[in-house]
Amino acid sequence: MTILVKLFGDLAKKISKQKSPKSPTNMEISTEGIERVSDILNNFSIKESETSHIFVNGVYSGFNKKVNDGDRVGIFAGNQALLYKWYFNRVED
Questions:
Q1: Which domain range does residue 36 map to?
Q2: pTM of the predicted model, to two decimals?
C-alpha cells in the first residue's frame, strides 16, 4: 500500500540526492505508520514551518488531514506561498 508524495521547491532539494532536482520530486511511500499529513512530514524530517501549502488529492489540506492508500499528497515549500489561505479553507479531519 502506497501514497504518492510530491515535494516542491526547497523541499524537493532537501530530500533529493541531486543538487538541482527537477521539481517536483515524486516518491511513493508505504502507508505503514502513516495516518495523517503530519506523519508524512515527520517521515521526511520536514518541519511544519518549512511548508506553505499542502494538497491531498487536489484538495487544499492541513497537517491533520488523514491520508489513505492511493492518495496523492503535494507539499509546497514555505517560499512558494500562494493566496490559498485567504480564499480557501483547509480540510482537516
A1: 2-87
A2: 0.82
Q: How far apart are CA 90 and CA 87, in angstroms?
A: 10
- The CATH number given to whatever domain includes residue 79 is 3.10.20.30
**The three grid cell numbers given for residue 87, joined into one nine-digit string:** 480564499
- pLDDT tens track, the chain, 93 positions: 899 999 988 888 777 665 555 667 888 999 999 999 999 999 999 999 999 899 999 999 999 999 999 999 999 988 777 666 666 677 777
Total domains in the fold of the chain: 1
